[in-house]
What does this fold into?
Amino acid sequence: MGPDLPIQLDQLAIVGTGLLGSSVARAARARGVTRRIVGIDRSAVHRDRALRLGIVDEASTELSHAATAEVVVFCTPVDVIAAQVLALAPACGAGTLLTDVGSTKGEIVAAVESALPTGVCFVGGHPLAGSEKGGPDHAGAHLFEGRLTILTRTARTDPVALERATAFWQALGARVRVMTPDEHDRALAVTSHLPHLAAAALAGLLPPELYELTATGFRDTTRLAESDPPLWSAICRQNRPALLQALELFLGRLENFRNALATDDAEALLALLAQGKKIKQDLAGGNEER
Amino acid sequence: MGPDLPIQLDQLAIVGTGLLGSSVARAARARGVTRRIVGIDRSAVHRDRALRLGIVDEASTELSHAATAEVVVFCTPVDVIAAQVLALAPACGAGTLLTDVGSTKGEIVAAVESALPTGVCFVGGHPLAGSEKGGPDHAGAHLFEGRLTILTRTARTDPVALERATAFWQALGARVRVMTPDEHDRALAVTSHLPHLAAAALAGLLPPELYELTATGFRDTTRLAESDPPLWSAICRQNRPALLQALELFLGRLENFRNALATDDAEALLALLAQGKKIKQDLAGGNEER
It folds into this structure.
């Protein structure tokens, strides 16, 4: 398939039919990207829901059922993706494109590239879209529309595979940006992983007697704390060095607030608040993913 | 007016016709609480919009024009409320109820009570509703529906005035809870003021090159950073001791995350994330203000 042709698959396989995997399937179906979709999931509930909702045409527990697809998208937790890719790869035909939606890229891409058989291509991916609500029931065909999907390029990335992965995500409605796995992980530590920690830390300190005294501000600031703890524990652990750096930045800035408050430094406090507002305004000016 | 009768005013005055003041006016109008509404604002833009939108019947720069109202609601920044209450009070008739919507209560209530002339009653108030968007244009008649409004009681609070203030807020659709100013300030330091600092600190550390790599998670976690810096600087400064305590709690919890990450302690990390999620689930279970 030429890189400039629209993607038209005979079979797409989705490994992990949770929110993201089912949304990839729904988007692919809605946009006529594939004739048939196979979903692989060890959860009977997910398989059943994905079949009943028409998200997949076939649901299986067997990873090997994905081997006949031209494109396989791994939508499982970040700490199992690499092993699954390497388990499936030897069974795949030449030219099969394997890709993923994991929130971290460094460990996954390195592990896969260290052992991938020749003829099969892997391109790391991460659509900047999701929800704190999991499962096929919350999946949507429009989840990726206008959103950015990051694809990774390393010295070992096959250029044609990267072009196919780009065409695939664009066919789902996404914009695509190519970065190295390391660039991705350092950026997402700040823009995604740190906000998850901040939300969890803030939610976690609320005593029950104050529940009634929260409003929309507390609710929105802590929304990300509703995310699945095992999934996010794995993400944080895979991105430890960059996340620790981001956390230091955040602690430093909070200490600036503490100092301004402790010394009742009105000017410093105002400047800190104004800096946050300025950046929010710049973001709203058109550079923020919606 | 008996405390069990529905509130029916001849004239309501709103000092400060921004988002909250204009919403109080809209709610009072929609629910037939008053025959006439006077708005006081030094901003010509606010006065003009509030008049054109039918939020107030009369708009004035002169605080003294509020003196003939039976109820006056001060919706100005927390650092000017007490002085305005004390400036207006001597001109008010006996039985006038003065109240406010300030996000802090300790300093305001103490300052007012120390100098209030006899015959005029003040009850501190704080509706747990609002928006990061300011001004009459964003005001809504339904802003307080089903939300909690906190009213303050001290040793000097007139019981009948507290009952009238309760009836007034209930007439706007709010639920009412009575607390001491100190209880209010310690609670709101955690549930509202700390989230504002956290949001501002997180937004403030984002470098421009990462703007494109933010998504809904970053956006929601930092929504409160869009609030008005001078307003929030004043709120933080009025609640310094309690806010500093809340900030210490937050820093301590973030340091727990840092330690779990630094030592790659999977169990501790999972427990911290799970604690945040548990509290979010308990909040969603019905105790959270919506």
